[in-house]
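Review this chain:
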Amino acid sequence: MKNPVTWYVLADGAKARIVTRPEASASYVVVFAEDSAGAHARSRDIVTDRPGHTQESVGSARHAVEPRHDAHRMEEARFLRSIVAHVNRESARGSFDRLVIYVAPRCLATFRAGLEPATAKKLYGEYAKDLTKVPLAELPAHFGTA
C-alpha cells in the first residue's frame, strides 16, 4: 500500500507555496509557488478609475468619495481564489490524498470558501498561521513533525 501524499498549502494574500514530503525521511520540497503581481502595487496602479466626486448641497465645493472596496483586499482575494482553483484542479487529478492548509488568519475564510466539496473531503487540517516566509528546513518544527 502506498503512503498517502500530503500537500501543505502555505499562503497569505501575496505569496503561496505548496510543499510536500516525498518520503518520511526526506525533506520538504516545493510543488508549486506563486507570488501575486499586484500585492505590492500602489492603489492607483490597481484601480483604473479615479475616485468619484460629490457636489456639496450648499455652495460649489466638491469632495472625492472613498471607494467602497479596498483595492488591495480585492487583489488579495483574487490571488487566493487563483491558488484555491489550482488546488481544486490538482485534487481532481489525484495529485494528493490529504491537504493541510496554513493560511494567514485574514485569508483563511476566503481560502476555505473556494474549496470544492471533493477537495474539502481531503482536508486533513487547517491552521490560521502564516508560514509563507519560513524556510523549508524549519517547516517540520511548525508542522509538529521531525
